[in-house]
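The records we work with from here on pair a chain with its fold. Here is one such record, which you should read through line by line:
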Amino acid sequence: MQAALGDAFHVESELGGGGMSRLFLATEASLKRRVVIKLLPPDLASEVSAARFKQEMEFAARLQHPHILPILAAGAREGLLYYIMPYVAGESLRGRLEREGRLSVADASRLLAEVADALAFAHGLGIIHRDIKPENVLLEGKHAVLADFGIARALIESRTRRPLTATGTSIGTPGYMAPEQFSGESVDARSDVYALAVVGYEMLAGTPPFTGPSPQAVLTAHLTTPPPPVHLPRPQVPLPLSTALSRALAKEPDARYASAAEFGEALAAGNLTAAAGEPSLAPGRGWRRRWTTAALGLAAFGVIAILVVRSSAARKQDAELLARLTPAADSGRLDEVAEILATAGGGRAEKLLGQLASPVAGHLSIISDPAGATVSVTRVTPFESYADRTRVTLGTSPIAAWPLVAGEYLVHVEIPERQPLEFLAALSPGDTVAVRPVLLPNDSTSGGMVLVGAGNAPGGPPVDAFLMDRYEVSNAQYLRFVGVGGYRDTALWPDTLVLGGRALERDEALRIFVDKTGLPGPRGWLNGRPPDGRSEHPVAGVTWYEAAAYARWAGKELPTAHQWWRAALGDGPGPYPWGGDASSTEIRTNFGLAGTAPVGSHPLGVSPWGVHDLPGNVREWLGGFRAEDHRRIAVGGSWQDPSYMFEQSKAEYFEPGFASDLIGIRLVRPLAQPPR
């Protein structure tokens, strides 16, 4: 080998290796740095052509990532195939596990997240590792570096003379291989996710999830036996982390996370370590307090909770509950599942859910900006009992892969001195929904507004991020404008206004903008004030000119059509803010033919960004106009309209001097700087 390398490297000693390679420590002559040379033994190298090996090394060299050990060089000389990597002056994860037995929850969570991030990067380039194990995770300081992306693909294709995706060929380390690898079936990113979950389980429990007296017994366990959730052998493990590992260890690839990136989301990108160190076992402190409080509260929704020792009477009750749960779960009656589990209490939920053949749990991850926000949820269905349902607190963010009976939830996020935020989350069985809400400061700039993220307007062009009023402008807010002389401030109004097809001087037009008693204000007011009991209803009966003047006074703007629809639908595929369910429109919004409702009265119609009452209640003036006749635009439908008037095609056009008790105001403000 030294002869093949020439003078470029000086081989010092052999470090050892595995079944497909030998490792040597060497010094690179030009830079005086230590490197590791990985060599295919001659008997294996004979099976791989130099061209095929070079092609695979070029693939591996593309993996430039902080948590992937890079390929520095590769060669094929004197019948030898080798590649060169940096020397890591630490130890492997295997060495640390042999020395310590198991890792702290904080260290294990961090290393898991780092390797998941490395795999997500590799998978994005179409590269599957296929041999995740503690020996291939090197520890450089406090960080993980994933090694050995090298020769598996080339070697197996050369041995079998068929593409690596063909079935019937397995490669990997048996203790960490996914079930589909044992049988030689196709492998993909989900196979790496499985192997990483085995490593994570071993880091936390101190022993692999699958053990036995013989290799065949271990193989059988991989194929047939679900491991106990890792929080059972190690109660300090947070429940969301335990749940994430259990899902990643599913026997069927379709039941796992679809990608390492999704697995990383479930691990909250390392934020499970935010509590720093092992959770305290003392009541009322640290992670233990958060997870215990959340688990007790979420019993109302039938989520997985800590298994407790049960009496024979409790076991009988569990059997009775399971007899009711099974047909409900098999039939997809998830509301019924949640209701039954609520009667079971949190201590029994895990065993009951584990015995259900049909999966019923989805997972919710919340990583708020800023962190530390209180997160609570309310199950949306059945609609008829929603108003009587209690909002249940999960804990403080970051919250990772928290299990809930699949269905739709209204999520509430709040933190002191920030604007609270509400949005809907629809959870499917086995899936994880990850949301990163931004809570704006409660100040004069953003008070009462929410952030609408940048992206394409539905059917339109890209829209920059902006702020939008959470609710329609209320009568009480508009009264302040009237009270400070908004109708007398000439700077807020154009010199000429068009009313009824006639161009009028400003003073003449403003004499028309009066309430029922002749005082300045919306057409439906009396004595310069809104009707009694309607202060929190949306202001209506104002022209486009009045809406624009109010916007100038407030230091904001009327939204463009693209902004309004971006705020209403976000990136969702459905025609409504909540998705595609047209049957629940009149429950979620005010299309009830009974007049306006106080702003925010219909939380189940909230948009993906947390904007309320975009459909129904009152239509809203936009800042643009129709080019052919300069008529102004009102969108969203009103309390007097059928629900289909919300659709984009049902925008209505009026002269700017037109006023109606069906049209109101909502404002936007551009961002001075893009959000983080």
About this structure: Confidence is low (pLDDT under 50) at residues 156-171, 269-311. The longest strand covers residues 9-16.
